[in-house]
Design a protein that fits this description.
This protein has about 475 residues and is mainly alpha-helical. It has helices at about 1-10, 50-55, 65-75, 90-95, 105-130, 135-160, 180-200, 215-230, 230-245, 285-290, 305-315, 320-325, 370-385, 390-400, 410-420, 430-435, 440-445, 460-465; strands spanning about 80, 270, 300-305, 325-330, 345-350, 365-370. It is built from 18 helices and 6 strands. The strands form 3 sheets. Strands 1-3 form a two-stranded antiparallel ribbon. Strands 2-6 form a two-stranded antiparallel sheet. The chain has a two-stranded antiparallel ribbon with strand order 4-5. Helix 5 (about 105-130) packs antiparallel against helix 6, helix 6 packs antiparallel against helix 7 and helix 8 packs antiparallel against helix 9 (about 230-245).
């Protein structure tokens, strides 16, 4: 049992990387985010900021450049595997065809990645609480950042797997027991409520710290959590807190959001910070894996827009978001780069395109996790459920891209808007699952969604071997 406990803790938590550097000109500039598990030198004193920086650093790892694409977008009706027909992309073809199992590598990679990040957040909170900081605002901020990051990863876990373990440093048995989904959501809510009280507003950060978790990021994520829980009034109210904070707004040009000039802009609540250089690279190879493939291309060509998504844009008359989301073979991009007709696939993901670090493994592309337009859509969906004004927030999103207002929007129209607005932002699969559209949406895309099975991912087989009592999800 002792050996099993050590193995499980390594799989679930992953010890904190040491050798982290403190803040310099920007907070992730010197963060080491590679997979290393080093022993703590008890005689060394580390600034607590190094621990929270190491937690952020986990978001820049290779898993998010490839496995994450598979379990969020390629699996959905937004995207196809892409690349070459003969290249399965390890398990990306399996995910594309909804043929994944408990042995599918991308699923296991994200389970492990999420828990390792949570382990770092736990260590960060404990270390900061016991360090003896006299600057209470600084201490609060570091704990608030770690709680936000912990909540984010538990949210990603619970929407993928349902009931999951809540790991704690105090209770060794917590590693072996899956908690009911409602209990996990309650834990997430409390972390975010704490973070809201502890974190500064976006405008209160120094420029070198831009991109750290903020009060608005915690409020926005909590609104999204409430939406998934179908707590409509709470989602409506929390989205409203973000809207009235004075910190956020819509970019006037939708396409600008994913360009360098749009990073950490007025629309950004939270995004993964990229620098394009070692050690603090961007999400390692995120742009490269999705770049155009073939002669004249610059990438691997995975996660390509589906014909189903293109049809959805065209049916809605949404040329602005279509052309900002999809790179078409033969087009000239905004920076003057020609996409030659010799590239392998007819479409690619423009939201992953990096102009300055074309095809580089260490990209400069910030990955947008939560932005203001989604807050407006959360407000609209919650409003439609409680009989409040759904039209105003929805039409702010629509009018920004030149689409006409809808005077009395239905929930389905709001869901359709989410798809077009948030395509390739890693939410589509979970949106069709939470809204009960899984079967119909995937059937329309020629895929067989099994009701009662595909709503959740299977618990990885490697985890079940280590801890048989953890159990498996239904029909897996």
């Amino acid at each position: 049992m002792k050996n099993k406990n050590i193995i499980l803790k390594c799989l679930l938590s992953g010890s904190l990387i040491l050798g982290l550097s403190s803040c310099s000109s920007s907070f992730l500039e010197d963060v080491e985010s590679r997979e290393k598990v080093d022993a703590v030198d008890a005689g060394t004193v580390y600034d607590p900021v190094m621990f929270v920086n190491g937690t952020y650093g986990m978001l820049t790892d290779w898993d998010y450049a490839f496995s994450w694409l598979g379990v969020t977008e390629i699996i959905s009706d937004n995207a196809d595997k892409g690349s070459s027909a003969t290249d399965n992309g390890s398990d990306k073809l399996i995910l594309d065809n909804l043929e994944h199992t408990s042995a599918t590598g991308s699923i296991s990679a994200m389970w492990t990645r999420f828990y390792k990040t949570i382990g770092r957040a736990n260590e960060s909170i404990k270390y900061t609480e016991n360090f003896g900081l006299t600057d209470q605002a600084y201490k609060n901020r570091l704990i608030g950042e770690a709680k936000f990051l912990r909540a984010l990863h538990y949210f990603w876990l619970v929407r993928m797997f349902g009931d999951v373990p809540i790991q704690t440093l105090e209770d060794s048995q917590s590693w072996f027991v899956r908690k009911p989904k409602a209990e996990v959501y309650a834990y997430i809510e409390q972390d975010l409520l704490d973070a809201i009280t502890l974190l500064p507003k976006k405008s209160e950060y120094a420029s070198a710290d831009l991109g750290r978790a903020t009060q608005g990021a915690a409020q926005g994520l909590l609104a999204k959590v409430y939406l998934y829980e179908q707590k409509w009034q709470q989602a409506y109210d929390m989205a409203g807190n973000v809207m009235t904070s004075g910190q956020y707004g819509l970019e006037s040009n939708y396409a600008n959001i994913w360009r360098l000039s749009g990073e950490n802009g007025i629309e950004s609540l939270f995004e993964v910070q990229a620098r394009g250089v070692e050690v603090a690279h961007g999400v390692n190879q995120y742009s490269e894996t999705q770049g155009a493939r073939g002669t004249g291309g610059w990438g691997w060509g995975f996660n390509i827009p589906s014909q189903n998504l293109l049809d959805a844009f065209n049916t809605a008359g949404d040329s602005v978001r279509r052309d900002a989301t999809i790179i078409f073979r033969g087009e000239t991009l905004y920076d003057g780069r020609l996409v030659p007709n010799t590239v392998e696939n007819p479409m690619y993901n423009e939201k992953a395109y990096s102009s300055a670090s074309l095809g580089a493994g260490d990209g400069d592309k910030n990955v947008r996790i939560l932005r203001y337009a989604e807050i407006l859509l959360i407000r609209a969906e919650a409003a439609a459920r409680i009989g409040a004004d759904a039209a105003t927030p929805l039409n702010l999103v629509r009018n920004r891209v030149g689409l006409p207002s809808i005077s009395n929007p239905t929930v389905q129209q709001i869901w359709n808007e989410r798809r077009l607005e948030l395509a390739f932002e890693h939410d589509r699969w979970f949106d069709i699952v939470r809204t009960g559209q899984g079967k119909s949406a995937m059937s329309a895309n020629g895929k067989n969604f099994v009701v009662g099975k595909h709503e959740l991912f299977p618990i990885p087989n490697a985890q079940i071997i280590q801890t048989p009592t953890i159990g498996q999800n239904p029909n897996w």
